[in-house]
Amino acid sequence: MAVVKANGYGHGAYQVALTALDCGVQRLGVALVEEALELRDKGIMVPIHLLSEPPWDSEEELLRYHLIPTIYTYEVAKRISDYFWLENRICPVHVKIDTGMHRVGVDPEEAEELILKIMGLPGLKIEGLMTHFAVADDPSNPYTMDQFKTFCRIIDALKRRKISFQLNHCANSAATINFKETHLDMVRLGITLYGLNPSPQTVARSLKPALSLKARVSFVKELEEGERISYGLTYRTDRKSFIATIPIGYGDGYSWLLSNRASVLIKGKRAPVVGRVTMDQIMVDVTDIEEVKVGAETVLIGHQGKESISTDELAELIGTINYEIVCMIGQRVPRVYVSSELQT
């Protein structure tokens, strides 16, 4: 399963889905009904999983767009079953078991009972069971295997009743790398699908980031020593300086917390962000870069020459994770895809 929620982790859900399907992926995962509908409206017809229980009054969309919901309460299961049964249809579902993440899912002690009750509902068919690992990005932590054993115990208990399902799955990106025994019938690739490592403890050296974030210099100003820059006047030039303005800001997902911390790449060299990041623009010091002119390519994430700026670098600067860095990239930032077939 290719997980393309949150606009494909900021990369563009539709284009990522097309590429994943072209590479042999058979199913997609999203968080919201609206995300699934967007893919359906653009012609994506493979199975699409909703990775949480669907909201009330979404039964019509589940039916019309052939979506596969995740279930972990009987109330939601019955509501969906009643709707589908009236329409003389059956909805495939996956039952989520909380083996230790403690976010959503049925408790292991109650899982078998819930599964049997759902099997008795005429409008549903359980296609698979699932769980989610909390610390699979740390291969030294035994908690993941404890979760996996709990999940397998439930599967085995059902098998003793001669009950089995088509797709049992639990491996996220980190588990896919670190715990091959957890792969079962399907893995759910999220962050690694985009060429990013799940954590510093889980590094697949073959991964190559799919995304670069670029802009172009829109203005260059010469300032004397002692001049101050941007809101709050938090930066003061300590020499005669050339300051370039780049048309990207926190309104585009370039975090305000990167103010006076981050750098960008221009002509293969680092230019520090000076002053506060504003909604639409940032300023960078290009004094030490020769002849920077309007239109010069600026790399905020990615490679230029021998230099690079990674999502991990930006994440460390502001105390977050690479997932958030890419997910923050806003809708108004144009996505340009390398393959001509994916240009939008």
Automatic annotation (TrEMBL):
Keywords for this protein: Isomerase, Pyridoxal phosphate
Active site: 5 (proton acceptor), 231 (proton acceptor)
Biological processes annotated in GO: D-alanine biosynthetic process
Domain Alanine racemase C-terminal residue range list: 210-338
GO CC list: cytosol
This protein's pathway: Amino-acid biosynthesis; D-alanine biosynthesis; D-alanine from L-alanine: step 1/1
Reaction catalysis annotation: L-alanine = D-alanine
Cofactor(s) needed: pyridoxal 5'-phosphate
Binding-site residues for substrate, renumbered to this chain: 103, 279
N6-(pyridoxal phosphate)lysine, modified sites: 5
Enzyme nomenclature, EC number: 5.1.1.1
Entry-linked InterPro entries: Ala_racemase (IPR000821), Ala_racemase/Decarboxylase_C (IPR009006), Ala_racemase_C (IPR011079), Ala_racemase_N (IPR001608), Ala_racemase_pyridoxalP-BS (IPR020622), PLP-binding_barrel (IPR029066)
UniProt GO MF annotations: alanine racemase activity; pyridoxal phosphate binding
Family that this chain belongs to: Belongs to the alanine racemase family.
Functional summary from the UniProt entry: Catalyzes the interconversion of L-alanine and D-alanine. May also act on other amino acids.
Name of the protein this chain belongs to: Alanine racemase
Source species of the chain: Candidatus Hakubella thermalkaliphila
